[in-house]
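Bench notes, bay 3.
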Amino acid sequence: MKFSTARKTGQKRAGYVIRYGLTLNNCRRLRAGREPLMKQIIGAVFSSLAILAAGCRTARQSAITHDELVQRTQEILDAVAPGNPDPWRKYFAEDAMYFDEKGRSMDKAALLKDVSPLPKGYSGDIKMVNAKSNILRDTAVLTYDLDETEVVFGQELKARYHGTDTWVRRNGLWQIVAGQMLRYYEDPAPGKANAAAYKDYAGTYELAPGRTRVVALNQQELSEQRSGRAAETLIPEAPDIFFRKGIEGRILFRRDTTGRVDALVDRRNNEDIVWKRMGK
């Protein structure tokens, strides 16, 4: 029984060999051929993983954070008073565009030329506040307010600005490619009120039919109200010149050759809109 079973098993295995064309030597040659191929595949996989890991490390190393943007920008600001161009040269790209609070458009060369120390007797500093950032892959936008203090021969001046810078990463280096600075509007210092002269201004002024402006005297205060709008207080700055709180521009009262007020002038950015006085 055992011999018969073994013989049958041998016949069965022989059948497999004949059916699939396999021999022991063929199997060994096939296995030997596969081993170098598997080694190559495994080597390629490990190489790819190593490259991927190195790329991830490089990406992490060249990424930038909000705090780094703030630190670099403050470094630029600290260089303003002494007129140090190095941070500006370092952090602004060669093709950078910059628009300042005076309305000037400058490239990097013009920007660096504009960096100069404060004159003798002048000092000051600029502090960044309320910084916010949006960082997306190779681009970062930083927006912030600036509190500037300038001392001119012992007299202190204050100014507030708002800046926005766009940083871009190129070849692992983060630099500013565009920047813009705006100055916040500040009301002028009020002048001495001359309530006795306010009666000269009271009256109705017309821009066009149906478009009027009424100037009224309320005790020691002068106000003006356009048709369909709320009344606004006129704050004196100088004789015949007033301003409204939080509104850029001036309200001037024009006098004719006899000294009589004949028009209200709404001055905006050095351009005038004239409202003619109605009646007397």
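Next record in the batch:
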Amino acid sequence: MKRRDLDAAPARGTAGAMRLLTRRAALKAGAAAGAVALAAPAIVRNAFASSGEVNFMGWSGYPDLAAKVFPAFQKATGIKVNFVEQPDQDSMFAQAKLSLQTAAVDVVEPTLDRAAGWNTNGLIQGWDTGKLSMDNYIPGLADGSAGERATIDGKRMIVPSVWGTEAMIFSKTEAPGEYGKISLGDLWDDKYVGKVCIRAHSSLAAMGRWLDSQGKLPKPWLDSYKDEATMKQLWDIALAEATKHKANVAQFWNGENDAQAAYRTNGAVIGLNWDSTGYNLRKDGFGFLAPKEGAFAWNQGFVLMKNAKNVEQAHAFAKWVSTADGSAAWASAFSANAVGKGGIDLADPDVKAFYSAAYPGDALQKLWWWPTQEAWFIKLRGEYADKWKAA
């Protein structure tokens, strides 16, 4: 997924997590599910003793959640997960608004940078951290600056579930890439007309960051996240420049499934996508590398709906995903990174090799964490994305 440089990004507190990227891993689903199965006996059952159900809305395109992870959680806790899939965060947000009337959803999984907007719109309530195990998390994910961003008015509004990046996918034969040379600017190269796969809003951010790196913006790109006037000033420039290269776009992607289809069936040879997409395409002749400007990085988590019906079960759910086994299984389903201490130790060697190759040299130090995006920003960002797609 769906969603996630250090010199400029506000989430410096994630440094501890980034250091672990040298051992970074999404876990092979079979191995992780097996590990969870081993963890399900009496001790874990007692720790999470409960019953009933929890209504969870999350990301589509990750079949191992329903096939392996939710059954493991139910075996450990007795709680059944009712899963509603959505392709992207905007769809989750819209459905969450409806759930304020229907109370159909208890827990949702947006990214950290969006939590403030969910709170501003009155969608969520704070977690009772006394019912969680905050010490379970890898340092830097739930504390430090990340913890500060997750806390609003003294309440913990979001707790980590998984984290990862958005970087460059490239055909090894038609668009070979090399670390230190592959760039966000390659998305706009005329030699890739009709061959680029991008997401509307993040590609505009990529254009902005690329222009910033070239010294072609009147203000730093990060300033566009601070106030409406600066946002419009800089995003107008990014949109105008991107529109000049609209012919490059083979497909705009929204979620995991259509992103993979862009490369497998719709002619894309290069693009900006989640690490999970890169991992899933690794046997199809595609590589995945951080651009020289730094990969976009995201920190995904659970929010508790303001009118959640199954509050105790929701806490048990979030707590289980913070354990070594739970976080390992969750990361495995997403082909991304575990948030719980010990989860990294369950990494599959094949996945370790993939991520090691994706982030060589100083790539980890250049990760660009998505800034906090308030409700006003999300609204305008959506308008710019629509203009870009319609251009």
